[in-house]
Amino acid sequence: MSKTVILGEKGLQMMQSMMLSESYSDKRLDVKSFLDKNYMRGEFVKDSDGGKKTIGVFIKLTDKGLPTKDSVMIGDVFDRLQQEKIDILQDKDERDKFLMDTIKAWYDKKINDRGSIIP
């Protein structure tokens, strides 16, 4: 027995957004795994006008998962992922947005075990 569901425009947009998000789950988990194996989160305190500013950095890991003395900024991680995961999505703009969103979510520990970004 089949049923028909009628959605308004808002409902349709929400369903499309949820479906798109779910289709990215495996890809996001793949990128998360790459980040887990190659980087750890760190912070750099910088003197700025009138105080100190904390900046998030990515500390490179050895093949054995130990931290090195090398740290990079988010742009460097993004550039590396663009090269490593060039085939993850065909559309360059879509891929770039996906990678940047995933990097930020990874740094903030907002990727759950199903590959979704949690608010």
Give a quick summary of the entry:
With about 120 residues, this protein is α+β, with helices and mostly antiparallel strands. The protein has helices at about 10-25, 25-40, 75-85, 90-105; strands spanning about 40-50, 50-60, 65-70. It has four helices and three strands; from the N terminus they run ααβββαα.
**Helix and strand sequence:** HHEEEHH
Rg, rounded, reads: 18 Å
State the share of residues found in helices, binned by percent. 40-55%
- pLDDT under 50 segments (min length 5)? none
Sheet with the most strands, sense and barrel status: 3 strands, antiparallel
Give, in spatial order, the strands making up the sheet with the most strands.
1-2-3
Q: Can you tell me about this structure?
A:
It is a single chain. Helices cover 47% and strands 23% of the residues. By secondary structure, it is an alpha+beta fold. It has a three-stranded antiparallel sheet. Helix 2 packs across helix 4. The longest helix has 16 residues. The N and C termini lie far apart (37 Å). The mean pLDDT is 90.
